Fold:
Amino acid sequence: MSTTKRIIHASPDRVFEVLANGWSYSQWVVGASRVRDVTPDWPGEGAEIHHSVGAWPLLINDLTTVVRSERPHLLELTVRAWPSGEGVVRVTCRQHGEDTEVTMHEDAKKGPALLVPRVLRDLALHQRNCEALARLAILVERAGADVP
Structure:
């Protein structure tokens, strides 16, 4: 399982505010090009974000489902991005002084991505998640402390 960490200059509650706004998903998740719908109970267990992956005109509609949510410390998701497959993502937020250490654990769970050797899969996921956490930090830390 790939593990990526970043310190975000905000409280775990503030980080989770952004995670809890399903409409912000495509702003920080690398590869998600747009959000089509968010169920009203997001980020409750079983809630879904209907998103698209790719770039026009090659968009694939898929979804992400909440497996577990413990505000403000944990959000565990099943992410679908067919044809590559399905994965599990666990985002944890831990108080780190005045800041938050955000950790993303991710791995493939089903589909063709499992055919990629783990070392290569972890490297690709780590690079992608470094960018995702950088984008999340921008959303969380931006001036005005308004939620996107």
